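#random but structural
TW: two for the price of one
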Amino acid sequence: MDVEVLVVGAGPVGLALACALRQHGVSVRVVDKAVGPATTSRANFVHARGSEVLDRLDALGDLPQESVRAMTITTYAGDRPMMRIRFGDPGLGTAAPPMVISQARIEEQLRERLAALGGQPEWGNGLAEARQDATGVTAVLADGATVHAGWIVGCDGTGSTVRKLAGIGFPGVQVSERFLLVDGRLDGDPPLDRSGTSGWAHRDGLLGAMPMPGGQWRLLAYDAAFTDDKPTEEQIADRVRRILPQRTGLTGLRLGEVTWASLFRVHRRLADSYRAGRILLAGDAAHVHAPFGGQGMLTGLGDAENLAWKLALVVRGLATERLLDTYHAERRPLATAVLRGSTAATKVNIAGGPLGRFLRDQVLMRVFSQAWIQRWTTYTTSQLWVSYRRGPLGGRGGKPRPGDRVPDLACERSDGTRTRLHAELRGAWAVVGGGAEAAFGTARRRLGDRVVRLRANGLRSGPALLVRPDGHLACKGGPAEFDRWLDGALG
């Protein structure tokens, strides 16, 4: 075997998966048909859950300091503010903040982390063929080279070659017509407020402006009247320049230098399965939906982290392949919920009829002005609420239940040094609680040496917690409870 896991696609999901696998000691090769790293921003918002994943990968670095903390969204009708939503920590115990930052910068940080772990993407060399057998997958790359891998994971986007070669269906529908997207500079007197995102509800379509690092702005406009199928970046920028004062009512607001422009249509698609034998899917290769709410890259990063620890256990011979079926069982229901929510948000934002605009501008605007609704919105979009308690690895009982996310607790190592729970979950499991030595021994016997022992304030008594590398509770109790859960999970 040439490599244990071949990752196809060097975007944020493929890079995150490769980093996580390397943390677990798995050999990885990453290939991508693109000639080099992307330089455009594309996704530009990372919610708290995404920041947590980057933190557990030790890839967060200085991104919080570089990011723009634009945590409000103000919606206007002309120059009249109709609604303001404030985002923040919904009290779920996280040290990782939401960030407005370019996807290109996140990918750069992940490449640096992968390099520190001994890997690097291979550009200009995608997947051409894949044949499975009992021992692995024989992959033929675009350059003609043959690679025998134990597993292949497709992180190669909505047009995934891996998904097509695996014969996995990707049904769905188009949700909307054209959106125009531009990154550039805005000039005006008075200047637009950079403390948050601004959006304008207009009869011709929504227009939004989000501040980006380096003084840039991201402009997004729904424009069903724009009929060009393959416009140039200059044509897109010119169109946005024309509609900007019309939709905002700010005649002095001008779009200056443009660094990137694109046109896209919103689709809703979900893979029939996340696994076909030794081939798996993650990120946009498995699910695609509207950009509203910033859920795309966030969901993909969660896919990568969930899959990595399971695949690592199988590769190391500590679990059977049945464990990989829980990846589909835990992650696909979340993607289904995300698709529903983003589709609903799209339909609300592009409402063109009188009734739809009335419901959006008069009813929903007032509802979303309520403080408790804003807290709920932050909680929902952050994905800190995600739990697998109803999945095959979940369970019942008092909170936290097996499958629930465990907050980033302040902890102590066995030598008394202070740490955080999530900082210890970098390719490792954690046993947390007072008097948990016997349970710790059970975990080490079943999971190997990638288990850490921690003490946490507030958990000096009670059952020990076995925390998964992705920050979710595996089980709680003593050696018998640990063995029972591990018997079921590891097969």
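TW: number two ↓
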Amino acid sequence: MTDTFVVIGGDAAGMSAASKAKREDPDRNVIVFEKGEWVSYAACGMPYYVKGEVNELDDLVAVTPEEFREERGVDLRTGAEVVDIDREAKLVTVETDDETYEQPYDDLLVATGASAIEPPFEGLDLEGVFTIHDMDEADAIEDYVTAHGPETAAIVGGGYVGIEMAEALSARGIDVHLYEMLPHVLQPFGEAVAEVVEDHLREQGIELHLETPVSGFDGAERVETVELEGETVPADVAIVGVGVTPNTDLAERAGIELGPTGAIATDEYGRTNAEHVYAAGDCAEAINVVTGKPDHVPLALTANRAGRAIGQTVTGAPTPTGGTAGTAIVKAFDLGAARTGIVDEDLAREAGFDPVSVTVSASTRAHYYPDGAELTVTLVADRESGKLLGGTVVGREGAKRIDTVATALTSGMTVSELRDADLAYAPPFSPVWDPILTAAKVLNGKLE
């Protein structure tokens, strides 16, 4: 009898797992249930659709539902929500607009993703107030901006979404006010990055309101104001981007254990505490390559890689899902800002390290070669072992150099080993001592 692999969730982790399982074992029944209509889409591209740099929302779809069904042989069922998992009977209960039915499985992947956090604000239900975490929300924002021509926008949250949407709405000719309750934007990137980004945002006309909590929104039918402590400020459209939370309700009801981060606990192969049940993507934990402990980092590559590995595992070739360094990069107008590993020294101490850090600024090209830019690099290491813990970069070019640091973290390199890495040099691309090497050289001097 042919085995059946059931996948709950049709985005990065789920569709990667389904595609890999079907490719490795073409005779296996692979069924994907997706409660919405969109699958395999690039959520990271949504701000650029709102901005107008991506012409059609469909352009963000990597593989269409028809291609999954007709070319890859995946039984993809959209508009179908799994509402229950029976671990003992190895069944899932599925609801559609027309019926409720049960589907048996031999192996099951929970890839239910994450949802945008909705703070307890008044006025979240007003027209013109949005979160942005799925394609329908991105489409709704674009439609609203086009239809109503707002003059002033309130963006709540200074993380990835807030920064990218500030650029997107500014490009649409809207006066943008960004509200962040913490002292800096991009908090996980550290102060050195945040200060550079903040200065640049102000240069681009973004009004920053740091250490400014928002209490809600007000308006007759559409949003008209953002409510602060003791102050009311006009706003014709509002974007709330204060983070995401893993979708774990379905797993919890089935007795699938959560980990210390609140996401679904998994082992190195993506297996949960339930036999033949896996979890991957934004709903699941991954192992942090620096600490060796569970972490929740809802990023696209982590989800795609874990899903692909699980798809191979269920077909008989156990494959680790891989760890995470939390490597991320964000565009802020003309700047690129990136991070990886542990940057916050307090978090490093909590993880048992004695952190030492340096911040240096260096040119991205040879000093005599035109159009170079200053790149600010921060590296953090453990004093006793010399182990590299993390790093950040920010500048008008060269932010992808963070990949060198991420590779070093994944390999468990020390600062001296990074300093001695044989990186490429040519004047149009780098000085002899690449900015990453310069930072490693300076940090190693502090460790000696």
